[in-house]
Amino acid sequence: MPQTLMKDVHDAAEACALGDEYVTALGKIINSHVRNEAAGAAVFDEPSIALAPTPREKWLACRMAMEEYGHHLKFNKLANELGLEDAQSRPPLSVFDYQVESWTGYVMTKAIVDLAEIVLMEDLCQCSYVPLRRLCRSLMPEERFHVGFGTTTAKQLAADPATREDMRSSAHRLITMTLPFFGRSDSRNNELFRRWGIKRLTNDEARTEFVRRTRVLLCDELGLDYPEVEPRWPGTTN
């Protein structure tokens, strides 16, 4: 792979001065977040408000929906500054096809899918584009709160025989559905991201870290088994 861009890019004007390749690569990352932050709020967080069993949990679900929509708006601001095409011209990631049908299922989306988002966002916290780097760093406390909520509540649910099997089946399905979240193993886009210093990790490295962390959650913290997964994903999309 050619030498990685080492300098900081401080604003949209500096990004555009580097040329279309940098802006296009950056735009793919930013627009993905524009789409997927809104999708997560709409298909995971909003339905959970009705499913939440207590007023406090409804309040927490409302808070997380609000924060996810806030993330969408903040990424969209970066997109507008760069003059990117409409992010909604492409569909959100396939993990958002998951149907939240129970409070347990929702809790596991926070513990698992939001953990995948943290793995990706941690990488972007070192991004060469300073506005994206700063935004990701500023959003990390909220993302960690979402995962912490999911993990803490999952531990409570795991202790109840009435919800344990629902938790296990939700976790297995979500882990399997989240693996493509990180992109193809042989992604040309990822090579471009790393060359321009937008990302550091390969897709497989990020996916392996997600598997490691979710294995700790399921096996060590919840006492559940882990689904058979492959850290490589030879999918057809980047």
From TrEMBL:
<protein>
    <submittedName>
        <fullName>Ring-1,2-phenylacetyl-CoA epoxidase subunit PaaA</fullName>
    </submittedName>
</protein>
<dbReference type="InterPro" id="IPR007814">
    <property type="entry name" value="PaaA_PaaC"/>
</dbReference>
<dbReference type="InterPro" id="IPR012347">
    <property type="entry name" value="Ferritin-like"/>
</dbReference>
<dbReference type="InterPro" id="IPR009078">
    <property type="entry name" value="Ferritin-like_SF"/>
</dbReference>
<dbReference type="GO" id="GO:0005829">
    <property type="term" value="C:cytosol"/>
</dbReference>
<dbReference type="InterPro" id="IPR052703">
    <property type="entry name" value="Aromatic_CoA_ox/epox"/>
</dbReference>
<dbReference type="GO" id="GO:0010124">
    <property type="term" value="P:phenylacetate catabolic process"/>
</dbReference>
<dbReference type="Pfam" id="PF05138">
    <property type="entry name" value="PaaA_PaaC"/>
</dbReference>
